[in-house]
């Protein structure tokens, strides 16, 4: 956690606030907007923007209108309009930057559908909110047991209580349509609260739960990624990656979002490459593309019926061959465009500190008894020789 107030525990060990995005210092939030206009005064006669950005559990953010003209600042806990009752959230942004964020999220600032901020939360509101949040983990375990007993093909990933404790939202994932009419009845009887089922995608589930990716870092969707773009297998083909589902899929079971990060760079580089399905016509025969290396700008071709013999060419040579092919004067062969490079022999030498693996071992001490025995044995041999 990045909070300055709860980042370490006893003996300097990492602690973490374990609030899952509801930290009062706003240090655990994903992509918190820095309010660089906080110290800038408004021009004379201009009123401050009457909307604020409020964050709830797991970085869920919504915009609310400050109709009561409350003096709000980042980190304030407020009671907001909800249906039914009210919800409790934390203010993450105020002022003119909220207008920019609303434009980015395609929300109309003049819309009448924007909910209101009722008041700043009292201590009683905060106590009810914290009590409801403490029930979520136990309810999640019980809810999963009920879903398994009813043999429903769904997974309940998270539960979020409303601030006043009057409603609980169950987030679930499912590949098919689920009939949970009986499930809601049992939930209402078991938990004694209003139930709302909300289906989310597998990527949204991974973003809410978090985790470590195959790269060793935290998941992008749970740290900074906010928009989930479509990822296709063609992105892996353009980058010359093996179509292995185990390597291309993330923790959500879908294709990794990072396949799109460098895709534009690869597409830009592939503009200088000829089409892979285009054959090269020579006097020796037609050649087919077998492999390309985008980083080196190399392509490997093989003659038809000689697929085991690959010939390495660069893009400039292929452009010459294709131009001759269009002029109907094909080149003699591909071999005349290859340059054989003799690999240099590398001489390995011992460097400082790497001359021996046993350089720090203590030398074996000779046994003085054996030395005495050897000297006695030599003397006896001399005596026998003299006699």
TrEMBL record:
PANTHER family reported in the protein's UniProt record: PROTEIN PSP1
Species of provenance: Psychroflexus gondwanensis ACAM 44
Chain ranges of the PSP1 C-terminal domain: 115-200
InterPro entries from the UniProt entry: PSP1-like, PSP1_C
Range of residues in the leader sequence: none
One Pfam family named in its UniProt record: PSP1
GO CC term, one of those recorded: cytoplasm
Protein name per the record: PSP1 superfamily protein
Annotated region described as Disordered, given as residue ranges: 352-387
NCBIfam families per record: RicT_YaaT_fam
Biased composition (Basic residues): 365-387
Lineage top rank: taxon: Bacteria
